[in-house]
Amino acid sequence: MRRFVQRSVGMVTALAALSLPASAAIATPAGAAPGWTLDRVVVVMRHGVRPPTKAEALPEGLASAPWPAWDVGWGELSHHGEQAVALLGTFDRASYGGLLGSGCPAVRAVADSDQRTVRTAEVYVAALLPGCTVSVDHKATGETDPRFSSAGETSSLSSDQALAAANAALPRGGTAQLDHDLSPDWTSIDRILGCRAPACIAAHPTSLSTTGGKVKLGGALALGGSFSETLALEYADAQPMTDVGWGRVTRDEITRLLALHSWEFAVKARPPLIARAGAAALLDQVATALSAPDAPVFSVFVGHDTNMALIGGALGLHWHAPQFAVDDPPPGGALIFERWRSASGRYRLVLRFRSQSLEEMRTLAPLTPEALQPVIFAPCDDGIGCDAPGLRQALSSVEASRR
How far apart are alpha carbons 76 and 120 in whole angstroms? Predict the structure, then answer.
């Protein structure tokens, strides 16, 4: 039976406030002359820690024991996850307090329609602006939101285009070579699962297919990527180590296996042709939030790991959250778009990546300033910058590349 515990947003944000970090103000962009001022921030973040989206995280027969219980329904933001998200809001408040100022500034919060995304947005803005009321813009539960769904955009790709793009991300030799290269990971996973042949991971060769221009992964990589993510979520939720992977895994091994989750995105979401199509709708929202004269000074969009992977692939962005794999979007991880303005009216776009480590999620430790990393974005790098029209052009170039 799952444990259901009632916690208010007020309690969660109060806990976060007790751990307010001594975060320095955000630095002026490298290479910029004195007089640059931060005047707009847009945060695109993944929801917080959740259980698997269904009771059996993998097909029946792979795990030799029942899966651990969670304190919320499948796929929902966990109560521990709420507290971790509140720490993110507190950290961002400390980082961007100069922009937000005192009182209750205008902030826009948008979330996908799932409970985990809506609840993440609610907890985040409550910690970002304590004592203020910010309504979260979202569609009804279960309703597809085109701002976060890539289905409509990727349908513009043919199956051949999508499949060719995904195959190009594989090593020479394709899925067979990938499975061979990753065979030590399949062995580790089978040991953690307590799996016995012939139903184990290695007996399911990795496969690729497409539906409506969207790449579908099957077999070992899909199973292994999902399982590594489940292990990370159990650990981040502060479950007893006897329950994390049934007591058969360490944190360091979880980090190593998370490379499989990153591989999933490298194949199905980050290839540029796929990413530019899938990220277009959300990037258009980001561009508007950065360039529209009447947009608020701070906007946050709460979606999924796929949304972050698509944006990363579309814009050529790379990050590395502590104790995660390179380019893996962790729970609560965020891409932060900062618009800086000079005294003469010029603009510059700076990108950063913000994330907790696995251990910080588990222990609810306050984030340190190192949680905010610079991200290279070539169209608006330190030597070029982006003026006001250039902000939209740089982020909307994904559309132009498809014509």
Answer: 10
159-268: CATH topology: Rossmann fold (3.40.50)
| CB-based contact 58:224 (threshold 8 Å) | no
What are 98-149's pLDDT values in tens digits? Answer: 999 989 999 999 999 999 999 999 999 999 999 999 999 999 998 999 999 8
Residue 157: strand, helix, or coil: coil
Global pTM value: 0.90
Q: How many whole angstroms separate alpha carbon 141 and alpha carbon 43?
A: 22
What lies within 8 Å, CB to CB, of 376 at 6+ separation is 317, 318, 351
Using CA atoms, how far residue 134 sits from 91, 126, 148, 184, in Å, is 18, 8, 20, 48
**Apex 39 CA angle, 35 and 45, nearest 5:** 130
Among 282, 179, 269, 169, smallest CA distance to 221 is for 179
Enter the tokens of residue 135: 């309504």
> How far does the chain reach from its first CA to its final CA, in angstroms?
53
Residues of the chain with CATH 3.40.50.1240: 11-59+77-152+275-400, 159-268
Length of the chain: 403
Residue 195: helix, strand or coil by DSSP? coil
How far apart CA 359 and CA 370 sit, in angstroms, is 14
Question: What is the C-alpha to C-alpha distance for residues 135 and 312, in angstroms, rounded to an integer?
Answer: 28
Task: State the Cα–Cα distance between residues 249 and 370, nearest whole angstrom.
Answer: 27
